[in-house]
Amino acid sequence: MSFHGKNLFVVALLMSVGCLSCNREKPREAASSCNLLVQGASIQFNGHVLPLPGELIEWEKVFGKHTRKFSSSADAYIWDEKGIYVLAQLSSPTLDSFTVMLNSRSNTDPLREAPEYWPRTTFKGRLCVDGSVITPDSRVADVNRTKQGQPFSRGYLDSIYSYDLDAPPLDVYVRIDLTDAGTPESFTMDFSDLKSERTNE
């Protein structure tokens, strides 16, 4: 190999090493720009861990006092200004499900009334799930293209895309509900064991 050829080889090698380090930095940069970061079965809000299942008091340390509570078949604790609500079994302090509202029903289908436990505003931060950003305008195919781990698959309705995540001893159910326009209405993670119920739906 000529001297000139060796120099080109060294330059190419250095550039490839540099690109590898760039690629390592990109996930860190993306993670740091996410307000709500979901990685597998773990959840963080602005760098603070949100345990699920977890105690309401732990979530209020991060989000502040919930805006209101609505009880029906479960207790819903709502943070209206954040566009988030969590669920617990009736009279239980342990939260086992949370939902992020990305599109309000009035914006996508004014003829369908939103449930009373839905937050009065949508989530305004940046939601990242396993390396993929989910926005109010996302499409499931685009989310799956950049998502690590399990992809979202069509559920029992064409407006629901989900997957089960084995996180022993828990069965985690991860779900996107779509608007009539095919964009995300909400993102949900459920840490209660509802596998048998979902099979029967």
Structure overview:
The chain has 201 residues and is of the alpha+beta class. It has one domain (33-200). The protein has helices at residues 3-32, 56-63, 105-108, 140-146, 195-200, and strands at 36-39, 42-45, 48-49, 54-55, 68-71, 75-79, 84-88, 94-101, 127-129, 132-134, 153-154, 160-167, 170-178, 184-190. Strands 4, 5, 6, 7, 8, 11, 12, 13 and 14 form a nine-stranded antiparallel sheet that branches. It has a five-stranded mixed sheet with strand order 3-2-1-9-10.
In short:
Helix content is 27%, strand content 33%. It is of the alpha+beta class. The protein is globular.
Topology:
Layout: H1 3-32, E1 36-39, E2 42-45, E3 48-49, E4 54-55, H2 56-63, E5 68-71, E6 75-79, E7 84-88, E8 94-101, H3 105-108, E9 127-129, E10 132-134, H4 140-146, E11 153-154, E12 160-167, E13 170-178, E14 184-190, H5 195-200
Parallel strand pairs: 1-9
Antiparallel strand pairs: 1-2, 2-3, 4-8, 5-6, 6-7, 7-8, 8-14, 9-10, 11-12, 12-13, 13-14
